[in-house]
Specification:
CATH class: Alpha Beta
CATH architecture: 2-Layer Sandwich
Number of domains: 1
Number of helices: 3
CATH topology: TATA-Binding Protein
Order of helices and strands: HEEEEHEH
Largest sheet: 5 strands, mixed
CATH superfamily: XisI-like
Structural class: alpha+beta
Oligomer: single chain
């Protein structure tokens, strides 16, 4: 399996696991969005809590130029650390929700 395909599988694994543990409500459903052609991957929640609409992303990843970009992480898990434990080099992970200036102070890639 080539590197990009491995990264796709790891991202799908992480998102799928979070989809199963995040919400117990029958009226709020997780939606896994896997766009392997353009390398966009997202976990969102859609539904109703009483009379309140629930809609929004929980996690979003992209693969850009051979690196995993964590564009959004609405969980308490340190997802970048988890990806490293799963075998992704820190140099292939970009914390996209941090500014490039801030990224230089992390153990991960700047771009």
């Amino acid at each position: 399996m080539d590197k990009i395909e491995k990264y796709r599988q790891l991202i799908k694994q992480v998102l799928s696991e979070h989809a199963h543990i995040s919400i117990d409500e029958d009226t709020v459903k997780p939606q896994l969005i896997f766009d392997s052609e353009n390398d966009h991957y997202q976990l969102a929640f859609v539904g109703w809590e009483g009379d309140k609409r629930v809609f929004g992303p929980m996690m979003h990843f992209d693969i850009i130029q051979g690196k995993i970009w964590i564009q959004y992480n609405g969980t308490e898990e340190a997802v970048a650390e988890r990806l490293v434990k799963l075998g992704v080099p820190a140099s292939d992970i970009v914390i996209g929700f941090h500014s490039p200036f801030k990224r230089q102070f992390t153990p991960y890639a700047v771009e």
